[in-house]
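Example with several molecule types.
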Amino acid sequence: MRSLLLAIALIAMWLLVLGSAAGVPWSAPLSSHATVSLNGQDFRPLVGAGVEDGTALGVGAIASDGYALQTTSLNKLRAADLPVLRYQFEDFPRTLELVLVFRRADAPEDVQTVALPWPGDGGVAFDLRTATEAWRGEIIELGFAEYATSQLVPPSIAFRPFRLVSARLQSVAWSAAPALLRSGWFGYRPWSQSAVNAVAQGTEGTTSMPLTLALGAVMTFAILAWLRREWRGRLLQLALVLAALAWMALDLRGLDDLWAKHALTTSIYSGKSWQERARLQPDEDVAGFAQLSRQQSSSPSAGQRVLIASDSVYKMLRLIYFLLPLNTAPLETAIANASPSSFPPDTLIVICAGTAWQYDGAASMLRSGTRAVPVTPLFVGGELGIYRLRRGGS
Amino acid sequence: MSTTYLLGWVVAIAAGMLAAFGLGASTRAGRTAMVCGYGIVFGMLLAAAATAVTARADTAQAWIHAAPWLAGFAIVFAALAYWMQRGAVIARTPEIDDEGSGYWPRLAAIVALASLIWRASILASEVLLRPTFPWDAWDAWAVKSKTWYLLGHYAAFVSPGEWLAHPDAELYTGPTWDYPSTLSWMQVWFASAAGDWIEPLVNLPWVALWAGLLLGHYGQWRALGLDRTRALVSVYVLGSLPLLTTHVALAGYADLWVATIFGFGVLSWLRWQEQRDRAQLFLALTCAITLSLLKHEGIVWCLSLLFAIGFAALPSRWRWRSAWIAAAALVIAAVIGQSHVLFAAVGWVRSGSRVLDIPVIGSLTLAWHKPAAIGIVRSLFVQSNWHLLWWLVGPIVVWRWRALRASDALSVCALLLLACFGLLVFLFVFTDAAGWAESYTAVNRLIMHITPAVVSLLALLLREPGAAPGPYRKVPEPDRLPDPA
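Resulting structure tokens for the full complex:
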């Protein structure tokens, strides 16, 4: 009898803990009372190319600006009634990241986006309530966009054909809890620049696996200590076993996550020489700018100085790194500390993906607000401008 | 991977191990692991030092210039250290009952070891495949090394103002021009051994660092009286921490180096306290100084460790009296100096009514930041950075409170770590560095600096009662034993 009571107490407690972690309210029904199911063929390829493939949509190409988008119109669905999104893709490459795109009836011009867990093989469930405040009102359009994973995957090799199989919106129900927890805890998330600051495993909305397991372990300990009198002499061992089990569960998840991240690295770089890998930079455009800039510069030993400007700090710093050992500095820093007339005469100025500095051809000046630098253009094309400082600056 | 690159590794690690062997000759339990761990880490740092001193004029061939000096230094140092400790192979470490472990703990230790080996293989593969990825790795730490190696010689990095003031000089600048150069010189060593600027090969030391961290801690834990199973499980706990794993996989940041050296310093200091092994005191002081050469924040940990070493060296009745005297002296110095106090290695610290100006950190406005406090709690207990480490600290300390109070070494170590943690909490919760905790940009990395030492404290609290080794004592060599007759 006591064993039965113990089993019931443990099951109830873990249901409470895991259900809370999945974000399922106690009042939720066992199964969804509202569901909107969409097949892949219901979506139109708005950007990129795609064809119907049975009930799915085969996406065969991305647009020249590096992404694909498939959407479908919806008949003013109430977002609050349908917060759980389930989606299924086939052959979705690990090199792409997936974004949910939607429009609301109250702001039809605004496109709302939410980053989604990588779909992998099989379905993924995602709670839109916890992911974005924008999931409210009435939804009139829904879609998926795919991009090369930013700052991680070279866009030139990111795309491979895949199939959008299905998508489903449904109300919150206990039946969705396992899938929500699975994608919350084990959903693949690629390396990001912030990973060295805070580890992100799974999608981690309200769902913290360490917190859940710690609370679960503490409550399990309390229940076992309360209902298993014969274990009261070995509480220490019990606590150690529970802590060890929780730690190992977390570590298995960590290793699984590390393995998934490593699979992406392997898929991009494995079997290639260092020279090939060095060319496969996630920011291929900046690497290309560096190559063009280097062609216009003297050798590093000549001591020529190169000043860089860009609207994006990331691109500016990356360009500086790619250009090493050229003697570089940010243009803004140089201008803030000295007059351009004091710069060495052969100084190069590189404007990379920047609009703050504009070339005034009539006066042969680079201008940013009231500031002006006399230059001679050496190369101007696309997002790159390379100029040589001209004497007579102010 | 070229032969010269492998040779570069062999020379660096052999030199480090040789030096560590000279210093680690006084123990039996854990000696091999300690020599390997400390040897790997200090081998890489000695290679950096040798490169900085001997190869400035020809960085392309840096390792060829530096290797003979490195080898010579290691041989002389090891011989000297060994000679000073001759006859000191001690018997003071109590016999640790490794055979008595039960089936399940041993199985857990084997699983833990297997897990670490698997993790190591993934990490090595990840680092060997990828170009340098994380932001500060290419924006801060690899800038000098890449410049010096590809330029073929050393060039000074200066502030932007100075760079602009000397347009004809071969000076470089950048946002991180004043960062310590130790890791940059280490990367120059490995780039020159590889024969090109090959980023995976330049970043591979981070994998070796992780291995050295685990081996060094295992060896020291064993020397401090932990049985094999507990030491292995503790190594697993340390090696499985997600943030440490991430700093290896995304190699290039200095934080793991600071964490390792601080952890080593604390362990050596503990051994000095418990065993009175002078070589370990030398290692602890070396670690403290090295901290200041790795990263600006290392200066704070360096001073903390030095202060703790001095504090513990005092007779117990003098400790708190001295601490109060030091605090009073600080206040008097601040009053006399009109809120300016000169700190060794830090410089002039200025305090205003709501401002604290610390040279290595910057000007900090004092105020309470609740979101930062929440950020710290989330970092420690909710995010996936530390598994359950910080959940376990409180219960283990409470459970082993008597053991903590009974051990002078562990008590002072706990005080040091509490003070370090308090400094971090003060920095993040009461100054405008709060943004780093709210955005999680620095809070976890700074907490990581003391994490290996925290794991050491917990592991040593869990050692068998009576397993703590006694004071170190030289034992006569057999041929000098007195004749029983």
